[in-house]
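Feature request, filed as a ticket because there's no other form

It would be nice if the structure record came with a short human-readable summary line next to the tokens. Right now we just get the raw output. Example of a typical job, pasted below so the devs can see what we mean:
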Amino acid sequence: MSLLSNKAINESLNKLDGWKLENNSIFKEYELKDFSAAIGFVTQVGIVAEKVDHHPDILINSWNKVKITLSTHSQGGITNKDISLAEKIDNL
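Raw output as currently delivered:
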């Protein structure tokens, strides 16, 4: 899997809702109803990530906020795997 060009990354981000580029990664912060919803969301993300064998960095940074960061570490940046997983997470 090869790294995406800056143009391809920006085109993909334009199609994703709320995802941003930062330090060779893409990220999105989700605000959930409460702590239980945040934990449930993290569990769902984990299940999807395990199915596609691509694992995001996940931060619960308040009682109801979850930050998901995606990057293909083995490639040193953003690949189609990251964009695809971002789409899957947004569909949860």
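Something like this underneath would help us a lot:
Helices lie at 6-15, 35-52, 80-90.
The two ends are 25 Å apart (CA to CA).
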